[in-house]
Amino acid sequence: MSFFSTRGGACVTASQAILWGLAKDGGLYVPSMFPQLSSERMASLCGASYQEQAARILRDYLEDYTIAEIEQSVNAAYDDKHFDDPAVTPLHTLMPDVHVLELFHGPTLAFKDVALNLLPHLIRLAAKKNDEEREISILVATSGDTGKAALEGFKDVPGTSCTVFYPYGGVSRMQELQMATTGGGNTHVIGVKGNFDDAQTGVKQIFASDRREGWAKESGVRLSSANSINLGRLAPQVAYYYKAYADLVLTGAIALGDEVNFVVPTGNFGDILAGEFARRMGLPVGKLICASNANNVLTDFIRTGCYDRRRAFHKTISPSMDILVSSNLERYLYLASGGDTKLVARLMASLNDEGAYQAPESLVDAMHRRFDAYCASDAMCAHTIRRVWESERYLLDPHTAVAWSAMEQFRKEADNGLATVVLATASPYKFSRDVLESISGKVIENGFEAMDALNAMTGVPVPKNLAALRDQKARFTDCVEKGALLEYVQKAVKA
Asked: Please, what is the end-to-end C-alpha distance for the chain in angstroms?
């Protein structure tokens, strides 16, 4: 299978797309076609292990990787050393026809682990396949969770380094500690004086810089990305949509062939786009429901076709969704327009130059057939956390609470009667202060004290990886201006 840039670049192999991260023209790599899973193949996934399911799906995308390479990589990424649940992404039924897919059982307790535990294996293999002998320097912009997941995935991996930029003061204290205490001789963490969009824009500018190849080659490195702009981040996420569907079939909640809704807390549009990839492969998906917090640029776009980042930026209790420029939406524009690279390039130029664009009516109509969108304020989110705890004895993190609120709004306004899966993207203990305040009204600023209080109140076990942070000291304290990311990377590379 070949991959093309959303802006019209030449085709590349899967390993090249994963190794390079971003296309030279600034576009994102998309598959030339979507492999189709027949009903027979879908039936074969039911009862298979997560590792088997992931390997079968990835084989269709990663054609220049051998089956043995994919299976070995998947087995290493999803073993019991990295994931604390044998199901990897367990599914729980909380209400009739409402199920929660838990994606936070990996080392950093966020959904990003599913892809970022696998990505280092794929990148190392990609380097070998393309005779790349230089060090692979991974650059990451994070709104909270991607950073730590990437750091853990690439920590002390030979032939790689990993540099993470995060919005200083724009992530939870627990998220910041997770990143700042990371070990490994090849890791770097830098705060950016700005928001996530500033960090993401800075990283994309590094990749787009005319000087990139020159100084990178001179310094003996190959730049790549672990953000969801990298195909190697996106493809592994497709697997857990199939895993959720197979679990529903196995439990008798649905019959094979029944459609299912998925509700996804969404910031950069990568997680929900993986669901669209799954649908295009043949997974029976009813609606993909995009859940936004107060930074509801995606909700407005899905409803109106107008993408406008010229709005107030809100710091919320769901910081991983505090995003106004959703990079992966570019991939959807390409797919929904039938591969119209000129249109995509024009819309992206308008977004960059004017801060907004209006999608064609035909694209908006196509989007409405498959997507719906709702948003939730911090107050709605807190109320949802409390209600779900009181009624179901289930503890939601703020991001999952946004998705739950969106699910409830959908069922009131446009219910299609289908079974619905809510993606739970993070452990509630990563946001102990806000979850505790939501269910009890008690405010404890110290994150570890809030964690202890939440545990005492609910009895929900504290994840070992978070409890261990209590005794660790921060290794990284650097902070840079939002326009200085390129200079920082150049210095780090030379060092």
From this structure: 38
